[in-house]
Amino acid sequence: MQHENSVIIIDFGSQFTQLIARRIREAGIYSEIHPCTSDPAAIRALKPAALVLSGGPSSVHDAGAPPLPKEYLEWGLPILGICYGMQIMAHTMGGTVTRSQDREYGRAEFEALGPCPLFDGVEDKEKLTVWMSHGDHVGAIPPGFARMGRTQSLEFAAMGDPARKIYALQFHPEVAHTEQGALILSNFLFKVAGLKPGWTMASFVDSSIKTMSAQVGQGKVVLGLSGGIDSTVAAVLLHRAIGKRLFCIFVDNGLLRMHERQEVIGFLEESFELNVKCVDARAEFLDKLVGVTDPEEKRKIIGYTFIDVFEREAKAIEGVEFLAQGTLYPDVIESISFKGPSAVIKSHHNVGGLPEKMNLKLVEPLRELFKDEVRKVAYELGMPEHIIWRHPFPGPGLAIRVIGEITGERLEILRQADKIVQHELLASDWYRKVWQGFAVLLPLKTVGVMGDDRTYEHVIALRIVDSLDAMTADWSRLPTEILARMSNRIINEVKGVNRVVLDISSKPPSTIEWE
Ligand code: XMP
Predict the structure, then answer these.
(1) Can you give the residue range of the structural domain that contains 343?
(2) Total domains, the chain
């Protein structure tokens, strides 16, 4: 996408590349990631105002190490190289890179040297804590460059050529462990490159509405609403762009949480006047799931049934040409990544293939955004907190939280227990502090006592986790009084449950969901 005043990050495969983009955007400058294998002409066509060369796992001396195309150095753009980005810059521009036997990983004390705009306003710049993660290092800087910083083990921990506005750092300013790293990056954007901040979610909303109106013209768009933040924000944005030519389909698969349909969809219809068709497909899903206990089989049945129902409903809308999806920027980066799509465990989660199958053109209003930016857009669009901060909910819904066989009765027990978990998280103000919290119904019964009677009833597990991106997670350290209240209420209020247990496993090796 072409944006004025943007910074393009050339990705050499670092695990921190996405962080660089996020930090730059937080500073108010639009930033996009492109693989180092991109055609320089295509990058130039995007008219970036500056380039950042990311880190990466290679050594410049390896056969097949990704090169730095000379064109990038010829356009007169300000450039910041980070880690491998610094080394490949030195290697290409006439300096040398020394191989190291050992990797340097972790904190280091950095001393900024000489006048260097990157360190303007940085406090204690003679002993700044920075984060290192590298093997090789620059042994001699290229002609025209000056040394701008060192550490105990590195003679050249930063270098720069002020005349050409090209700078490089061996450490990672994008990582939170580097003190004042955000200021160092901002200095590159504002002091070196002279950019003016303009990337705000208000500006995104305006430009995205224009882009979508132009893309869709007078066409009709169909969108599957799940109740999650991504599809909801995509729908509200598109509605602003094309109004009633957006047709939302919400499939009630019988596997939703209590009151989900009313809370989310009712609200969207009333407050945003969205055109939503609620399809009651509960019987269709539940019939197909009778007797199914294998998690993968459950997921497949639900995925295929969803496609069938959605396709049927979409075809009933005359003349639909477009399918809208809430794809986010991390998914886009994954698919074009220099390393190739990484083997993310979440691959089974989403139903792909719909657009090709239905011969529709895709509209992806959120494909430039990170998740936190989607939430900001939601604020911008006037959406209420309870929608913006809803916990993620898996596509297969409660089917993968009723462990073992899914029956109407077991779903109802889980719904009631889950409602109590949600309620207690909200009432204690913990809802927003955790990533996700829910109940799981286990496929076993245990013995209990109730008055003088022996009971033999179901067990509920509480799964409440902290996470940043769902790729890793840890169980939340909730105050025990809250856990006690959840447990008491579930056992007292949910008929058929006489025991509650707490899941204290982290991901990995466990997953957040139980199936
Ligand atoms: P796991 O269980 O893999 O879950 O640790 C990671 C995150 O993804 C959610 N999840 C899903 N989301 N379709 C979805 O849209 C799915 O099939 C699915 N399975 C898991 C899960 O709730 C957690 O937030």
Answers:
(1) 201-388
(2) 3
